[in-house]
Design brief:
Layout: E1 4-6, H1 10-54, E2 65-68, E3 76-79, E4 95-96, E5 101-104, E6 112-115, H2 136-139, H3 155-171, H4 181-188, E7 192-193, H5 198-204, E8 218-220, H6 223-226, E9 247-251, E10 259-262, E11 267-271, E12 274-277, H7 278-298, E13 304-306, E14 311-313, H8 327-331, E15 334-336, E16 341-343, H9 344-355, H10 360-392, H11 417-440, E17 446-452, E18 461-462, E19 465-466, E20 470-475, E21 481-487, H12 496-509, E22 516-519, H13 522-532, H14 534-549, E23 572-576, H15 579-592, E24 593-608, E25 614-629, E26 634-640, H16 649-656, E27 661-664, H17 667-677, H18 681-684, E28 694-696, H19 697-702, H20 714-722, H21 741-762, E29 781-784, E30 799-803, E31 808-810, E32 815-817, E33 824-826, E34 831-839, E35 845-851, E36 857-859, E37 868-872, E38 876-878, H22 949-956, H23 960-977, E39 1004-1006, H24 1008-1012, H25 1024-1035, E40 1037-1038, H26 1040-1052, H27 1057-1066, H28 1068-1072, E41 1077-1078, H29 1082-1096, H30 1111-1125, E42 1138-1140, E43 1158-1160, H31 1165-1178, H32 1185-1207, H33 1219-1233, H34 1262-1274, H35 1284-1293, H36 1305-1317, H37 1323-1330, ...
Parallel strand pairs: 8-11, 10-16, 17-22, 22-39, 23-26, 24-27, 27-28
Antiparallel strand pairs: 1-13, 2-5, 3-6, 4-5, 7-8, 9-12, 10-11, 12-14, 15-16, 17-20, 18-19, 20-21, 24-25, 25-26, 29-30, 29-38, 30-34, 31-33, 32-35, 34-37, 35-36, 40-41, 42-43
Helix pairs in contact: 10-11, 11-32, 13-14, 15-16, 20-21, 22-25, 23-25, 23-29, 25-29, 29-30, 34-37, 37-38
Amino acid sequence: MTSTLSVTSRRQRHETQQQIEEQTKKGLATKRFKRQQKEAAEIANKKKADRESRQNFFLVRSKQTKVGAQDPANCCIGIGCNLSQDAMPVDTNISIGDESNVTISVSDDNLYHLVKHPPVVDISPSDIYPTLDYIEDEDNGRNESDDDPGEVYGVQQKFIKAIQKRIQREVSGACQEEEKWLSNQLVENDWWTRKAQIRRTVKKLKLELLYLAYYREVYVWLPDVRWASIPNTFMPCCPNCKSNHEVGPHSFRDNHFGRVVVGLSKTYYIVSRRYICHTCQRTAKKAKNCAEDLMKKSGATVDTVVVPQYTFMGWDKRILPLFESDRGDYYFPAVLTWKAGVDKEVVNMMRPLFNDGMRPEALSKLLLELHSKQFTRLCIQHEHEIAERKKIHCNREFSPLGDFGDKWKYRGLVPTGKFLAHIYKVFHSSIGEYLDMEVKKCGADFLHWDVSYKEAKHLSRYHGKAVFKGLVTAMNELGEVRIQFHVYSDSHDQMKSALEAFRGTTTSLGLPDVCIFFTDNPAGDKQFYTRMLPSLQRQQGLLDDLCQSNTANPMNVDVDTSLPTYPYENLLVRESCKSDDIDDLVRALKENIKGKNIGLDAEWNRTVNARGMQIGNSKVHIIQVAYRNSSDQIVVLLLKVGGLTRLPQRLEHLIANQDVDIFGANVSADLTKIARDFHVVEMKKVDQKTRQNVHNLGLFARKRDVVQDGSASLELIVKSVLNIALYKTLQCSDWGGTLSPEQKQYAAIDAAASLEVGEKLLELPDLTCRLQQEEVSPGKLVDLVPRNGSTACMATRSATATITSSGTCTCPPGMVYGKKKFKQMRAGEGSCVIALGKIYSPALIVPSYMWAETKTPVTLEEFPDQAEILVPISMIKEHVAMDTIRPTPIETHDRAGRSRLALTDNSVKKRQSSPVSQQFDETQCGTGDDCEDDVDDEYSSCFDEDGEERLDGMASELTAEDIERLQKAVFDAETTRTGKPILACKQLSHPPDPECVENKFSSVLGDIFHAMDRARVPIRHEAKKGYFVALRDAFFVWNPNKLKELERRMKERGYSDDKIKQQQYFNPKLFRGCIDRHAPPPAILYWRVRAVFATYGTIIDSKTKAPLFNDRAWKKADNLLKEILEGYYSDPPGITLYNKRLNSDGTVMKNEYSMEMIECARGTNRTEAYHKNIINTFGTWSTGVEMSDCLLREKRHRHNQNVSENRRSGFPRIGHYDTWLIEKLMKLVMRNHGWRMYPGLCNTSEYKFTDESFDTIALHTKGLNDAIKNRYVELDKAKIKLTRDQRYLCLVMGTLLPFLPFSGEKEYHAYAHFITSNNPKDDDDAAILWCKFVDGVDIFPKLPSHMRIHREQ
């Protein structure tokens, strides 16, 4: 049965209440009108008496006449009164004292006029404060279609009512066409009644015109009337059946005429009407009749049968997104609640302001300031108008505007912080799914996992207890947030459902599997995470095989000494510096070139200041052009153009020519600088990155999946394509003088290598190119891809397929095609029929296919095997059979995961130790080191979220003695590893034989900085700084090749060897910013770290006489050494942990020594820094759970977009964060123009939403959920009164009652009874048994973590 039964008659009660309210309003209006008439009569009588008492009243006094306040003719003297000599004696003096005394003295023949002193009355305008509040109790069960029953009927309401009645009369056909003046006015003003039309509108409506400041602009929302030229297209859809086929106008409201909306500095009104869905009406009536028949048969007596609502307002938020062409979103100007609304401009301001830490109360104050200031300006303008009118109508009385909050007149309205927070949550509910999907489409080769306990402090508490205690965040290798959810504790059982859902999303979208996992406690976490993410186990197997084969590079450093160098001797190099000679060389190029490809590079000098900092660039000095001549030999032209003001004509034509393909590393930036330096007008007009014939080798190689980073250097690309080593040691030499042979060789090789790489890459398929119509042929094997996006952001392909020969296909059962619901289709222009093969991205939505009943889109996994489907040609490309394609196959037993419930009850209950971790002392491992309670004032943390920043400060304060001790510690480690006596330390376990230490690597790695901080040391110990710097240098080893290169460049700037060594300690950021470091394998790392512990641990502080390490620190240090032997802190071979830093134009950033700047993706520092930034957003703000989720969702989306723009090569910079608007624009441009905007950006809407969720997610098992359902059936629902946040918890966690921590005497007593009457086998069982005590009022369900923590407390 589709309907439910209700005990009371809601509809009858509502109609009775409306009648009572209407009668009350009429009675109050009658009393108010009589009172106003009486007051007006009294004022008129008083004015008449006062005027008669002043008429022709003159004073006759002696020479010193005084007029006092007690005189009935209290007056002053003015020019223009004709007094005779008898009435005013000669030489009468006039002096004006205070307000109560006026002295008059007149001379002969002067004329005076008596003028009244207006009485001054003290008035106190009412205080101005926000009055539009959100009251949760009033909001329960309401939506934006409901009305405010306590609305006062003032000037604005009369105006809105008259407009509504008039528009109702005009749209109903009761008026002749020429009488539809209001409709015509609305059409001319985009369906607004603007301020300029109010005077005319009031007159037309035959209303009394009061002050214009009392009236507001009105927006009329009648989409079916506004766009009536397209029949039935813009009739609102029913929010229940999502169709407008049988929807029609219902009525205008007779008790509510418009909804007030708050803007930045003023308010306005929106008027609409109700609509009715006849389909749902019939369904509701049928359900009602069935329910009544059933009641008659069963003998039950129920007052009313509640049926689904089939009428709705035109502004219902559920139907606005359903309008064709997105007109509901774009033309409707506000976000509404049942009480009022807020303009979308204010909502757009909320998002960045709240994200930056502004609280809703602060925004409310800002709006109050703007609204009240506007009101004050209107008052000033009004008083000026009164002054001007009094000059004409001197006897007419005028009144001020009144109070800001006067509901009868001005009716100023400003929302409170609570109301703005509610609007923010309402708006986020409309974009939440999209923002979550934006996170899901981010792939993750690495996961950096961390738990923050600070954000939870800002969540609202339940009876003083925290609802959640931690926020788990996992980032990918680029620093984008990929997983985020709240937990009550950091036990593994609360993380299972999130990881299952993540794995399911990865499978559904065809994303790469996680191969490396960073955590703060690798020994305790490895078994759990490798079980939850099978890809980690596979990666572990590969690492184990690599160690057994002894092929791993022990130092894990890129070594190119085995590669051959570029054969410079095979090049034909031509050099010229004169304009005519350059023209001759370019002419020879055009005559002898084979093909249309050239390699291009440019060299110039970097300008530095006295400190060695780069402050600018010189003019381009050298342009290198490489081409292949008719004899298949590469010719390189070294063109010295530094002395020229303009380029030679032929050279300018060559580089500006659109018919020649130009290859080079970031060659578009070189061309831009050449055009700017030599004023090449034609080239300056065009963005060089958009030229079709200009190929930046980084992106060119990325599109062919040769490199994984579009900003890859020329060295890496040459190594990957040509298997040749390229050295860039002379890049920063002086190019303005005479070139040395080495410089000529360097310059020529750069251009020649660029040409050869370009030629090789042209032979490889471009994975981003789609098939053209002429390339479609039956039987051709193709790859199915999304309509937008490339390998840079999503899987390389979504499925394989074969083009069929028939060109026709039939929809599978239950499916239809297009809006007209075709069942059989024939491929026309721009489309083809394919037979699906292997599917890699099951969640990809196939355009135009939908399920006939639900009208939901169809995904690849929902088609039968080998199904023939019709797709746009823009979705298929050449099939690429190569190993570098990284598919994620479907596993039949592993479907999309869910964040709702964990799959099993007892598979993971507590942290379980692996065979490796059993040898460790768990109390001395990383477990709990992040807990807020594990902080000692004397032994505090050194590395928190700042990571290495604080250590840099310590390094800069080292003395020469500290550095000497530091270097000695590393020296001892090296001598031990090479066979010298073993480092002895009685506080540490006996070390293994150096010859027997095996190199091990792990797919689950620990954060090195947390490991360094494992052994806490005293804050004020004099050896602390040297110890931490030595420990850092023990864990990390510089790349020797890049270190030598930087040292060489520093020597060229005048640095000595000793100065350079000092800079490594005093300016480590310089080295760390351009030189990669690696954590050596266990056979090396163990001895380096042990040497530091042995050297520094026993040092006695001269003041406190205490050693650096106490007993606990020694135990921690000893346990860390054991973890090092297991490979938890060594970089796995073949894994790249560094990214290049990019400028805003996509080029690689360089430091003052022209070395490419890099950033490290090792460990959890980025995740911890993100958590710290979250605290900056929350500040002292205490939010509810729902508001917290909205803020986290917004921050996560903005953070990820910023990271993508900075670290994903080719990612567009759109200037705002509403990426769903960009998606809509991309689709419209493709449909209207056939252009693919932002080809590297994949549309979120092309994939089906998965069940993965974020922020507040389900942390319980299915068994616990069933126990709650069974208990809920037994409870009295009328007694259960949940708050909004509690209802939100139930919604997002998928339960009928919220999980809340223990609080209150009733729960404590119930727990005592529970303990005595039950014997649970574990915490999961205890949580299930506890449900028998739940009442939904004072006693609520508990998670296993609640039970465990309460038991331990």
